[in-house]
From TrEMBL, chain A:
Transmembrane segments: 351-372, 393-413, 425-441, 462-487, 507-525, 546-565
A GO CC term attached to the entry: GPI-anchor transamidase complex
Pfam families found in the cross-reference section: Gaa1
Source organism superkingdom: Eukaryota
InterPro entries according to UniProt: Gaa1
Name of the protein: Related to GPI transamidase component GAA1
Keywords assigned: Membrane, Transmembrane, Transmembrane helix
BP GO terms, sorted: attachment of GPI anchor to protein
UniProtKB/TrEMBL annotation, chain B:
UniProt keyword annotation of Signal present: yes
Signal sequence interval, chain numbering: 1-25
Name of the protein this chain belongs to: Related to GPI transamidase component GPI16
Pfam family, one: Gpi16
InterPro entries, sorted: PIG-T
Length: 585, 618
């Protein structure tokens, strides 16, 4: 106590608190910089990450010998040559394969019809000794995320199901899912499985999506995708199982399809980390849907395994053995995945950062918004206004109005865009209309005669930053990456002060506008202009339940609107100058 | 002998008639006793084999036993009279007498009966339960409380006898089914000890997914008069019986009485299993199902086939094998007690395609009806041969197919979806849907909705449910009990769904491995009037089936969390205590005064002196 008291007295004596208050804008910037450095410098540095480990002892990966080899290769090839004949014929391929599956002992099949998203054939191998209440899913979409035909993937999946049917060891049912594509069709099947299908096989514990286009016999390495929608990640134990099984088969793992997957130096770790953050932030929006994302939100742990290359060292059966060994491992589970981590960032297949280490990065930035909000309330001559002053109430009312406006906009725009299919020119037109209107709003001050009182301007900013800070803080637990990326992109918003030149403020407003910023950022990442980005955002919500569109509209656009409003203030400039001069005196 | 001779003979005759009555399926009666002095051994056993599609083989071991006579009215019992047991297990009747149980059914079932390809369940589903353990009892008692206490006594004793957790069936898992006329026939004919004071209570409980294994089979074998030493029971081996796609063990005790109150028990034990023949045969060769060698591969020649690719053919259809290949043992001769021979029969429509031979020593014999009486005492084997295993006798189709699944994903609520499919072209069926939900599933009947795939009847959906019975749960004391009577139109799927809440459990109420989820017992469906054959009566008239069990996930705490909470609270408490203690023991003075006092303290003075000394020295 006496120590605290001493510190307090020291601080009071040296005027630290007043100094801190006057330098709030600097502090706010400092916190953002710390937040950025934390993720980009501190976390990938040696000593800040850990080796992954199996938390659930029951998993025991690679403890059983995998037998999917030898003549199973002939069978995979046999299925493959038949599939090559029918894979282009969307009308008959499901019924033909359904007949093949019905010949396998213990398999029941059904086709889930959906005219909008595409049909899905699925077969359930009932675990002979199991209770029939739990299941594992083996999904192989006919067409992968790049639009290639998943010939080998489907063949391996069918051959595997046939192979599995001869084993009495299964304690969980195995469901084979062949959907038309790896995104909406699969997602629609998952949703139907939990709502309206008659043939079901119990609650799904884990799923593996196979992606192996072409008819090659050999594989160079494996790409492992794991980031789900809305910040959902599979349990780290499942990722560990997949990595350990793949490496046990002598193959290298590339996380999220990173090119430079062999290196383990600082740069490689940083690249893997940033790619993971990007995939999570853009899941369902800019990134192609690999398949495993479709299981997000249903408490199903899911990964996509993609085979790359056609030289070797491994062959098709290795790909099958990866699934076999992973399923054998998951099959051992008595409980659901509940140990280990649900929130993590991977730096390498066997290195991870847990939530406790990376969360501060986003927290620092959201604190910087809280500081900006504090700055807007204390660092001007209106700081002594009472809480119940009309300006506060006006600002709150405006916050409400902005919320309603952004909500209406988010719903209204989703009705307008994408409703003519994926017509590119139409969507580009709608996107430009949206962006144009944002440019107009950014120039509200010079284009209209709208003027608000300076007191209200400060209050608006205060509530805007506070609202944004709360949004970011609550979002960072759900989707760390989205929260982090948005907070960085929106940061120029806090730099808006009346002492700046009008042009500077205008630039800050424009680049922190959610729509313009999203458009620019995704275009930079993809290296092409993303005219379709808003259509994708809306569709991701409609088809996949990805909430990024609403975060951008309601969470980000609302405070931006308020800041833009607060900028419509001619007199603010002088007053702030005066108050600064007063303080210096 | 206490009874006069004539009476005994009439009794025996009655027994015989009763036996014929209950053993409609079995071709012969149990006992044929001529002489009054001869001790009778009413025991009969039979093994029925039936090929099913896809190379499955259904094997049913049936054992019928009856007890000696006793008097139902306890007042008339002569205390000096001794009880005599012949074949009837000594362990069963005291339990029944103590708990006044007139009828007891105990079923251990595991696996999935594939009714779409295998047809109806054996015995119209009467003798098999849902996955796990199911117990039914008809108990004579004064009132519900009395019945429950007797029931508890019954379950506890059976638990010990059958090595299963039947004692976990307490009041929170027990229901009193209301449509007892459907679940039981001839309720009136069941005798009571004290008909004036007491009434009969039908009670039911079940344990979903109770693991069933060898230790449950052994008690069943122990009930048989000659154990597994001889007769068809010698085939029963846990490793083989449970290495199946579906298996069921059931025990059924009935009390049968004559008008003058002389009764006896009839016990039927069934052990039934569905085996996959190719799987077992290949496992005999190699216990690990390794990939077949290249010359064993069976490829479809009509498709691209060469030395590196092979489109697999379905399993072959011509088989011959010995029964000992499936059960690992031979039948150890005839059973030594029964008056009738043990029987082994093969049921199949096409006698020319399915042949069964009896093998005694090295010789094979056959009969025209594929049925054998085992009249030798040496080891016997059977040889089964088929040219086309897909040519199987068409079992009757199941009158209804029911699927039941959980919907939703959240941890605080969920839904149940039950769909009934009536495959018949022209016959509507009446169905009783029975469901007992644990108290931690709180259903909302208001959310009950019906859907149909046939648009024509959508207007009449309100008339699908004829009658409802719903008894809400009492937390931790009583399960929810739902009984609906539905009429499912021909060739239609009716889907019933409703929502329920998932409450939070108390910390200690979670079972071990809490993150596994909670097993929800199967729903139970009785179909009335399904049969086109109007001659079938009583038990034959009703078809029973169970849905698969479900796994419900409730929000489960992190069980190490309390320790974190304890540590956190303790820290906060310590800090608050420190502050309060500080404030209570210190004086409040101004800062100036505090500095003044501080400067007068001895240490400060000492430090001051030292500083002075230093200054002087320098």
């Amino acid at each position: 106590m006496s120590l605290l008291e001493k510190l307090h007295r020291r601080a009071a004596n040296s005027g630290l608190i007043t100094k801190a208050i006057t330098s709030l804008p600097k502090l706010s910037k400092l916190f953002t910089i710390v937040g950025i450095l934390w993720l980009c410098v501190y976390l990938p540095a040696e000593g800040n990450f850990r080796n992954t480990y199996f938390s659930e002892n029951a998993l025991m990966p690679n403890q059983a010998y995998s037998y999917f080899r030898e003549t199973e290769w002939n069978i995979v090839r046999g299925y493959r040559s038949e599939i090559t004949k029918i894979i282009n014929d969307t009308d008959i391929r499901n019924t033909v394969v359904s007949d093949w599956l019905n010949d396998i002992v213990g398999v029941k099949t059904a086709i889930h019809h959906n005219s909008r998203y595409g049909d899905t054939l699925y077969g359930i191998l009932n675990a002979q000794r199991g209770d029939g209440t739990e299941a594992m899913v083996l999904a192989a979409p006919w067409q992968n995320s790049e639009g290639d035909l998943n010939t080998s993937g489907v063949s391996v999946a069918i051959a595997l199901l046939r192979f599995f049917s001869r084993w009495p060891v299964w304690s969980k049912n195995i469901i084979l899912v062949l959907s038309d594509n790896s995104n909406v069709a699969l997602r629609n099947w998952v949703e139907a499985y939990h709502t309206s299908l008659d043939l079901t096989g119990g609650s799904i514990e884990a799923s593996i999506v196979l992606d192996y286009p072409g008819t090659s016999d050999y594989i160079d390495f494996i790409e492992l995708y794991y980031t789900g929608l809305n910040g959902d990640l599979p349990n780290l134990d499942l990722v560990n199982v997949a990595v350990s099984v793949i490496e046990h088969e002598g193959l290298k793992v590339s996380l999220n399809g990173i090119k430079n997957f062999q290196a383990r130096d600082f740069q490689a770790r940083l690249e893997t980390l940033l790619l993971g953050v990007e995939k999570m932030a853009l899941a369902g929006v800019g990134e192609p849907i690999m398949g495993h994302e479709c299981f997000s939100g249903w408490r199903i742990q899911s990964v996509t395994v993609k085979a790359k290359g056609d030289k070797g060292p491994a062959d098709v059966t290795t790909f099958g053995r990866i699934v076999e060994a992973s399923f054998r491992s998951v099959n051992n589970l008595l409980e659901k995945f509940h140990q280990s981590f649900f929130f993590y960032i991977l730096l390498a297949p066997k290195w991870f950062i847990s939530i406790a280490s990376y969360l501060p990065a986003a927290i620092f930035i959201s604190i910087s918004y809280a500081l900006a909000s504090l700055n807007a309330i204390v660092n001007n001559e209106f700081s002594s206004l009472p809480m119940s002053s009309t300006h506060n109430i006006q600002a709150l009312l405006l916050l409400g109005c902005c919320l309603i406006f952004t909500f209406v906009l988010s719903r209204g725009f989703s009705l307008v865009i994408c409703n003519r299919g994926n017509e590119h020119t139409y969507n580009a037109l709608m996107t430009s209309v949206l962006l144009g209107s944002q440019l107009f709003l950014s120039n509200l001050k010079s284009l209209t005669k709208l003027i608000i009182k300076p007191e209200l301007g400060y209050r608006l900013k205060c509530f805007a930053y506070l609202f944004f800070s709360v949004v970011l803080t609550s979002l960072l637990v759900l989707n760390f990456s989205l929260s982090y990326v948005i907070s960085i992109l929106a940061f120029p918003m806090t730099l808006l002060v009346s002492s700046n030149s009008i042009l500077k403020n205008k630039v800050f407003l424009i680049i922190s506008n959610p729509f313009i910023s999203t458009f620019i950022a995704t275009s930079l990442i993809k290296n092409t202009l993303q005219w379709n980005i808003f259509c994708q955002l809306v569709e991701a919500w409609k088809d996949l339940g990805c909430f990024t569109w609403f975060v951008i509209c309601i969470g980000w656009y609302t405070p931006w609107l308020m800041v833009a409003l607060s900028d419509c203030n001619e007199t603010l400039n002088k007053i702030e100058h005066k108050s600064n001069i007063n303080k210096q005196e | 002998m206490v009874f006069p001779a004539t009476k005994l003979i009439t009794l025996v005759a009655l027994c015989v008639i009763v036996f014929i009555d209950i053993c409609l399926a079995s071709p012969s009666s149990l006992v044929g006793i001529e002489s009054q002095n001869e001790i009778k051994y009413p025991f009969e056993e039979k093994l029925t084999l039936e090929p099913l599609p896809n190379n499955f083989l259904f094997a049913s071991f049936q054992f019928l036993l009856a007890s000696n006579d006793f008097l139902i009215n306890k007042k008339n019992i002569d205390p000096s009279k001794f009880t005599h047991y012949t074949v009837f297990p000594k362990s069963i009747s005291p339990i029944l007498e103590q708990t006044d149980t007139k009828k007891l059914s105990l079923r251990f079932t595991h696996g999935l009966w594939d009714s779409k390809s295998w047809g109806k369940l054996p015995h119209n589903g009467y003798n098999s339960g849902g996955s796990g353990v199911e117990i039914w009892g008809l108990i004579e008692a004064r009132n519900n409380t009395d019945a429950m206490s007797k029931w508890n006594q019954l379950t506890n004793q059976l638990s010990g006898l059958f090595c299963a957790s039947i004692d976990f069936i307490d009041s929170s898992k027990t229901t009193f089914p209301s449509n007892s006329d459907v679940f039981l026939n001839n309720l009136e004919s069941i005798p009571m000890t004290d008909p004036l004071e007491n009434s009969l209570f039908l009670m039911r409980g079940s344990l979903a997914n109770e693991p069933i294994c060898t230790e449950n089979l052994t008690p069943f074998i122990k009930l048989l008069p000659n154990r597994e030493k001889s007769g068809i029971a010698s085939l029963l081996d846990g490793h083989k019986v449970f290495d199946s796609f579906w298996n069921s063990m059931s025990l059924e005790v009935d009390t049968i009485c004559s008008d003058d109150g002389i009764c006896h028990y009839v016990l039927e034990i069934l052990v039934e299993t569905v085996l996959n023949v190719p799987q077992l045969l290949s496992r005999n060769k190699n216990p690990i199902p390794k990939p077949s060698t290249s010359d064993e591969l069976r490829c479809d020649r009509s498709k691209n086939t060469d030395e590196v690719q092979c489109f697999p053919l379905p399993e072959k259809s011509n088989y011959d094998y010995h029964l000992s290949d499936l059960f690992g043992k031979k039948v150890n001769g005839n059973n030594l007690l029964s008056e009738t021979y043990s029987k082994v029969c093969m049921v199949s429509a096409s006698a020319e395609n399915w042949k069964i031979f009896i093998k005694i020593g090295d010789d094979y014999f056959s009969t025209s009806d594929n049925c054998y009486n085992l009249n030798v005492d040496s080891p016997i084997d059977f040889f089964i041969e088929t040219e086309d295993s897909s040519d199987v006798s068409v079992r009757e189709h199941a009158p209804v197919h029911v699927s039941r699944s959980l919907t939703g994903y959240s941890q605080d609520r969920g839904g149940l979806r039950i769909s009934f499919w009536n495959p018949s072209v022209d016959k509507n069926i009446d169905v009783v849907y029975f469901e007992s939900l644990p108290w931690f599933m709180q259903p909302y009947l208001s959310s009950l909705s019906l859907e149909s795939d046939a648009n024509t009847i959508n207007d009449e959906l309100g008339e699908i449910i004829k009658d409802t019975y719903f008894l809400p749960a009492i937390d931790r004391k009583r399960p929810s009990h739902i009984e609906f009577q539905l009429n499912v139109p021909a060739n239609t799927t009716i889907t019933m769904s409703y929502q329920f809440d998932k409450p939070l459990l108390k910390y200690a109420e979670y079972p071990p491995d809490a993150n596994h989820g909670f097993e929800i017992e199967s729903a139970f469906i009785a179909v009335k009037g399904w049969s086109s054959d109007s001659h079938k009566k009583g038990r034959e008239e009703i078809y029973f089936l169970r849905t698969p069990t479900l796994l419900l996930s409730l929000s489960t705490p992190d069980f190490s969390m309390p320790y974190n909470v304890i540590i956190l609270t303790s820290t906060v408490m310590a800090m608050i205590f420190g502050m309060i203690f500080n404030m209570m023991t210190k004086r409040f003075i101004t800062v100036q005064k505090a500095d003044e006092i501080a400067s007068k303290s001895k240490i400060r003075q000492l430090v001051g002196k030292l500083k002075n000394l230093k200054r002087v020295a320098s």
